[in-house]
Amino acid sequence: MARRKKRERQAALLDLLEREPFLTDEELAARFDVSIQTIRLDRLTLGIPELRERIRALATRKNDDLRSLSETEVIGQLIEVNLGEMAISILDIGPEHVFSKTKIARGHHMFAQANSLAVAVIDAEVVLTAVAEIRFIRPVQLGERLVCKAVVTSNKRERAHVKVTTKAGADIVFEGAFTVVKVQQENARGWEETNFETGD
Questions:
Q1: Which superkingdom does the taxonomy of this entry point to (predicted)?
Q2: In 3-state terms, what secondary structure has residue 110?
Q3: Alpha-carbon torsion (92, 97, 100, 104), positive or negative
Q4: Which of 120, 129, 130 is nearest to 67 (CA)?
Q5: Residues of the chain with pLDDT under 70
Q6: What are the DSSP E strand ranges found in 83-119?
Q7: Per-residue DSSP letter, 193
Q8: Which residues fall within 8 angstroms of residue 112, CB to CB, at 6 or more apart?
Q9: pLDDT tens, 9-39?
Q10: Residue 121 CB neighbour total at 10 angstroms
Q11: What is the DSSP secondary structure assignment for residue 82, as one 8-state letter?
């Protein structure tokens, strides 16, 4: 990104953080082609808190309580949820998530973040995954932050479709289309007989 005048850059910074609130100072500096110190001064001028405070603020304003999972069962930190509509979580890739040799994140952690969010966003007591069509788009490295967004694309009485997109910075690294089924607690063991065979 070409260098901008200070006022123009600060306006663009506000706009960017409104759309992508999880960017680090390092990522912002790279986007605007300025130093990290410049970004910190811009944030100070604009009254924008550091990333940790922004995440904490977002997490405390999440709207709905989960029904299908407890919050601790969602992989990553749940940031926002509107049941039946959308949800967002973040996951910082640490040493426990990567292969020791390559420092590349193991795919099952990315899948687990997406799958748990696809289930959590549904407004029902028991929600199970029936179908998952997933795509790993690029490797994720140690230290990257994954921002996962689940959007309910259709929501019928017994099943729903959820599209999940995971980004690391500006890059889409994972996509998934999940079909989940809603079952009564007492029927959870037999859900596959009534849902897999009937389809949509």
A1: Bacteria
A2: helix
A3: negative
A4: 120
A5: 1-3, 59-64, 185-200
A6: 86-92
A7: H
A8: 75
A9: 999 999 998 888 888 898 899 999 999 999 9
A10: 32
A11: E
Structure-token pair, residue 79? 């940031």
For 8-74, give the DSSP string. Answer: HHHHHHHHHHHH-TT--HHHHHHHHTS-HHHHHHHHHHHTPPPHHHHHHHHHHT--S--SSS-GGGS
Q: Are 167 and 147 in contact (CB under 8 A)?
A: yes
pLDDT of residue 128: 94
Q: Cα separation of 157 and 39, whole Å?
A: 48
Side chain identity at residue 112, one-letter code? A
Helix, strand, coil distribution of the chain in percent, nearest 5:
35, 30, 30
CB atoms within 10 A of CB 141: 13
State which amino acid sits at residue 156: K
The first and second tokens of residue 108, run together, are 């099952």
Residues 6+ apart with CB under 8 A from 162: 118, 121, 122, 150, 151, 152, 153, 177, 178, 179, 180
